[in-house]
Amino acid sequence: MQLTQRTTGAPVTVTYWMDHAWLGTHVEPGVTLDVADGRIAGIRTGVEAPPPGATALRGLTLPGLANTHSHAFHRALRATVQVGTGTFWTWRELMYRTASRLTPDTCFDLARATYAEMALAGITSVGEFHYLHHAPGGTPYANPNAMGEALIAAAAEAGIRITLLDTAYLAAGFGEKPNRHQLRFSDTTAEAWAERASLLKGDDHTLIGAAIHSVRAVPADQLATVAQWAEEREAPLHVHLSEQTAENDACRAAHGRTPTRLLADHGVLGPRTTGIHNTHLTEEDIALLGSSTTGTCMCPTTERDLADGIGPAAALQKAGSPLSLGSDSHAVIDLFEEARAMELNERLRTHIRGHWTAAALLRA
């Protein structure tokens, strides 16, 4: 929130009066909210009218929403990849074409528009899963983090906080070198990725985290390097996990185990880690994620757009995996639709109605 400044430059408290406000478990009428230095300083209930100098917010006020998983540049694909038929893998080819044309300047413009759309949808923080690092052909920019810094700047201009999840993307598949499209994504090794990612700087509106694109994109013997980088910084670590059955089949063929088991064996799972999608899981996978309190981010509008499948959200939560939501490829930017879709998907998957309350979905 924009704060009024004293002549000394020190922020002062700004008071908002809310007609009705969601307070975590229920709606309360007549609530004042004091904000100081960008943080909530106090909440009072039972205030029937706006106090002098307060900004009145009519209707129902909700906390800002957190969008756990975003690929900002995928917003450019909307209304093009939905044409005709295909699979995740044919969609990916169209995504590569869009990625090949982006520069730091156009990345900034596109991300700013995407984040502005999020802000208009009530989203005040985003987890940006960022893997478009280098120039076409894989040549680093003079500033090796030009693309990541463009995303940080775009979020600042749009007025939302960002967790930049700088992503290790080193291979096209198990034992395969990056293809010509993926050269822009690759730092060649996890050590080189860590060296570049370490140059990124956070601020009051920016948190730097890490991501493993997927078990097919980071060789097994390099997974621990990324996990250790995140652990040393107490940073969040995200990973695309079992979004496609083909990835599971390839992982079993290469390593004789599921992607979840492979991550567990290399120290990737844990309370600061979030698996994105977690769609096609075994019972053992669910137990591993839950017992390690690894999070799950469901992205229902993207998962249905790409025909990925429906993940076992309720079983994961019951096992101990905290749930969150993301708009991912931005076919839709509406976290209320993501929440609604998660509930309705679970009804279709289980043939049972009513898995989460409205309050539980809002917290996700």
TrEMBL record:
Gene3D superfamilies: Metal-dependent hydrolases
Enzyme class: hydrolase
GO molecular function, one term: formimidoylglutamate deiminase activity
Gene Ontology cellular component annotations, sorted alphabetically: cytosol
EC number: 3.5.3.13
Keywords, comma-separated and alphabetical: Hydrolase, Metal-binding, Zinc
Needed co-factor(s): Zn(2+)
Protein known as: Formimidoylglutamate deiminase
Start and end residues of each Amidohydrolase-related domain: 62-347
Organism: Streptomyces parvus
InterPro entries registered for this protein in UniProt: Amidohydro-rel, HutF, Metal_Hydrolase, Metallo-dep_hydrolases
